[in-house]
Queue: 3 jobs
Job 1
Amino acid sequence: MDARPIEVNESKSVESPKLECRPKPPRVQHPALLALLFLVLAPQMALSQLSPSAWWVTTAPSRIQAQSNLTYLVVNGRESKLDIYRRRGAGGPDPTLIYIHGGGWAGGHKEDGVMYTLPWLEMGWNVVNVEYVRSAVAEAPGAVENCLCALRWVVDHAAEYRIDASRLVVMGDSSGGHLALMTGMAPATARLDRPCNPSGDLPVPKVAGIVNWYGITDIVDLLQGPNRRDYAVDWVAKADNREEMARRVSPVTWARSELPPIITIHGDSDPTVPYSQALELHEALNAAHARNELFTIKGGRHGGFTPEERVRAYIAIRKFLAHYGLPTAIDSEAANPH
């Protein structure tokens, strides 16, 4: 402590400082305003705590609407149906994925494959999820006819559902991969759309791309020999000439240069659909100078891919889409919520 005395200079007058009395600021007396500010800011604070993927999943029901079991074809009183998932609000038309499930043409349901469509919904695409007639009800080419008629229905109703008919991609897995290939590859001369085009006067609608997950490409090869598969034999068993029918509904039969671009994803250890089927299609398309890619999953079996394998496959798919001028991120808000 400083013990020196306080010095005062008596030769100068010292004026006492003036003290100003300022009113204290009023306290906020509006709890309703505080509550409103909290309601406005709290969601933003909460959203900032979510990862982009968690944000997308959480807000998807607010941005995507589902319309289920729309009838696209009626044959002998039996209705074939599809589901549509599309973005809410104005805008569009938007690029659209047509997804076809697997099941050896005998089983499976469109609902089983919804998870396969999530990457496309995340990219901002619409999704059409197609159900088709089973082999127990109608053997070959019934499922192919259904899928071609589903494609025609989508094109005919494009304006109603804000679908961009010039940017349609068809995708399927296993027998659904086969049906996706046939939907995008079958020419009008194949006459595989008779239920919805009985006169044959209408052209087959075009798609912008095909994504084939380990699909059957040559059914003749599966009827006998080392690659014989019961599911293929059963599907064409009732045909008058099963080999002729098998060729007619085999994608390799329709390889030609003017096809839309095709990407095939196939595991080279697939016990259900031999990997040689993917190689055969790839070689046939190359020979026809058709645009195509083959993405091989080393050691991959019939689907059931690991998360890492699926990520690599979708990286290849996105590069494929971008290469052919198809978008991989439409909804910028969904892609970057923060």
Note: Confidence is low (pLDDT under 50) at residues 1-17, 332-338.
Job 2
Amino acid sequence: MQKWLDSLELLREVSSVPKKYASIKQTKPIQLSLFEILTETDVLTQDGNKQLQKGRNYSQTIELYDFMPRFVFGHQADLRKKFNGLLPALVREFECRGVPFKLTLAPATIVQPNGESVAHYPGADEDILEMVLRKMYIEDNPRLYDGQPGLTFTVNSIRKELKRQGKTRSHTQVIESLLILKGSQISCQNLKTKTTLIFNPIDVLSFKKDDDPDTPCYLIFSSIVAEALDNLYFRRFNYKKVVAYKTNIARLLHRRISHHFTQSNPNLTYSVNFSTLLRDFGLEYPSLAKAFIKLKEALKEMKDANVIQEFTCEPICNGHDPRKIDDYFIKIIPTKAFSFEVKNSNDIKANILEILETSEEKKMSASKNLKKSSSSFFPKPVKSKDDQG
């Protein structure tokens, strides 16, 4: 333990830590204890039988934050050539629970060993790394560091978790992804309230620049994650399945359905316009036809993962030219196993709220949370018209 403390006090490579690690106040409010509740749970197997499954398969989505189109999926090298090695800020619009938002994504600038500066948007690797970091946070007795959620880790521990999930990343690749998450900046404006929140996916990152994979590292998650945890704006999802997906759409769509589709009735369907998914996922393709091919690949992957039972994609034709397809209306029938997971998540959330309402800590902070909720950046938790179930 002393080795960790001594090492962490010296970590100043990316962003300075205001205090020595040993002097940072560590707390664990009841909200974090509830965030951590991912113990053994019943799941429904494909043949309809119940089976006890370890909590390692589950993690949590974060309200609003996980549904911002803040990743760029695709090759960024061509864009860099166009802008002489740099990348412009991207502006995207999306909706969360029916509330419109505008997001501006500024890329991170990474200095290469040869001294050259190269710009990077967060991409698929960073999306997966964020899920891994959050999973490690949940399983490592999650705490607040001076009121902010933080994690101590090693590059080796990240690589081991990635390997457990069938992913391979080198030491250098993990460091680069961490730097991209630290260096990229997101400006998100609630177009309804005109409130703007500016943040980095990783608020503070400290590490020692050497090749020792077991050197202690330290990070603080974004402030928007801290607010979500404090207000219980999170929901359980099947981490193991999502990380294993090969298609970006499957990874994004599974989390969206898990978070927003709270109906556990297996006879209900999830429906959404394809254009809504493209907008809210920040996905860009040369044509709708090519995008539709990727969608079908993702839906098949989710079907193979026993998440989707059936799906239909109904063409929406152009009003002036019926031969032209403008959009697709997607209907998804979840499997019994997925519906069972949703029911378990509902039960867990209900238990969480009951525990919190009866806790002394909640009663003591009730007035604080009441004031916070009135000015919260998060939209009210109502179902969007674009996510029908």
Note: The chain has 14 helices and 18 strands.
Job 3
Amino acid sequence: MPFTLRPFRRFPLHCIVTYNVGLFQGKGTIWNLSCTGWRLSGDLPMRPGETVTLPNEQRIKVSEAVVRWSRGQEFAVGNVVIEPHTRSVTSLRQTTGAGTSGDCPVSDNQPMFLRFNIAFVLSFVCLATPAWPDYEAGEGAYQRGDYATALRELRPLAEQGNHSAQFFLGVCYANGYGVPKNLELALQWYRLSSDQGNWLAQNDLGVMYQNGDGVLQDYEEAARLYKLGADKGYMVAQSNLAAMYYKGRGVRQDVREAFRLETLAAEQNFALAQRMLGIMYMVGTGIPQDYVQAHKWLNLSTAQGDTDAGTLRDELAKKMTLDQIAEAQKLAREWTPKGK
């Protein structure tokens, strides 16, 4: 059943959500949804003022929102930037700035009507530190490289079934962080997390299947797992799946689909995807050759420390005119990540 969201009329909706907080992922329920905000009850508390995003591949995407108040595990979240998907918009008066690529800032005098099905699952990402002490201590220790403390804080949560903590243990066992490297245990924890819908775990599990790390190499399973994260907008999974389509591994070879996925990841400022997209433009594989676009994307990747992209850019520049280089540099300077 379709319904319409209006800026100040909240729809009395209850639906399950999943969300990331730093490295971790939680679950909750969202209700009283409108264009200007929503109310959430979740297992990873957030503090007022923290930034939230709500990317949903199905109907609606909120690129930025702010926690207004919190009471225990209940939070009020106000939308700052909201993006309509193609099939979502029925009426829209939109004001966009440079680099927003269709972002629609929500304001009091800006009517917006978004239509989508009542049966859906929303996902959102909180780009801030969780308020739950166990997570704060575990993530903080991980970021400091104190893996022993991180494991001590998060292992009990993983054993209780928390898929974010399970993903964390998978990372530790896969890389030997604080524990002896053990691919069998890494697979175990990744699978437990992946089965609960954690797209970070799904991606890393896909890498293990692609490379045959601790498991029989299976390109089809790797591609399937990458697609789960790619469909949710996870840039690493998008880039990994692009490589599968480019080479025809686990999927039918489709260079155009590889280009589409790589573009989605590059637009989120993923350096590896930017380098690969630059190469595709440079070579003209499945798309018209475009040295200006190639230089732009290689330059953006180089700015993030990708030395290989820098080498390719410098070699490409020898084939370009000064006007082409100037245009590419201008495009790179003016570019901003999608949604920023």
Note: Confidence is low (pLDDT under 50) at residues 1-14, 55-60, 84-131.
